[in-house]
Specification:
With 183 residues, the protein is mainly α. Helices cover 45% and strands 9% of the residues. The protein is built from 6 helices and 6 strands.
């Protein structure tokens, strides 16, 4: 059984994994995977963006704001419609903080963000690059109406997000529909 509070890090990009920190977003009982500063700090650690300065409550609110700003823009992109200008303007506010330096250790790494604002700016930049570049053609939304999680699929064949629950529900529903038609 999958832990509903487990971080989803399989959507194809950090910004999409941020969207997945709120599961079944459109359902009756959404799952908030970063409900506290501590959980948000854990998530930042897992995506290698933990800032040098401690994460604060205002930072958690900013992360929620970025996530809920990106979600409708991503879904508009997937659906092939223009995003709301107000959402685009809100996204722009996340794009003007610190710089990233590259460091060579045993591999190429980026500098640690100094603040959570810097970390969120990196996530926002990644989203903007993907939403405005040719890679946007590989963005898809889960066909489960309570999820609509956005993910990357370079094959164009997937119908559900990487969450096994969505695929299972979709397959069971399709099986029942085929069975009903054959009777």
């Amino acid at each position: 059984m999958v832990d509903r509070m487990e971080f989803r890090l399989d959507c194809g990009a950090t910004w999409l994994n941020l969207l997945a920190t709120r599961g079944t977003h459109f359902g009756e009982h959404p799952v908030e995977r970063i409900p506290t500063v501590e959980r948000f700090t854990e998530w930042l650690e897992q995506v290698e963006l933990r800032p040098a300065r401690a994460v604060r409550a205002a930072d958690l609110q900013a992360a929620w704001d970025l996530r809920e700003t990106l979600r409708p823009i991503a879904l508009a992109t997937v659906d092939g419609v223009a995003p709301d200008p107000g959402q685009v303007e809100a996204l722009g506010r996340f794009l003007d903080s610190g710089q990233v330096r590259l460091i060579v250790t045993d591999r190429l790494v980026r500098s640690r963000p100094a603040t959570t604002t810097d970390a969120l700016e990196r996530i926002a930049r990644q989203a903007v690059d993907q939403l405005t570049g040719p890679e946007r053609a590989f963005l898809f939304a889960c066909s489960e109406s309570d999820c609509r999680g956005v993910f990357i699929d370079t094959t164009g064949r997937r119908r559900w997000c990487p969450n096994p629950a969505c695929a299972t529900r979709g397959r069971v529903r399709a099986h029942r529909a085929r069975k009903a038609q054959s009777q």
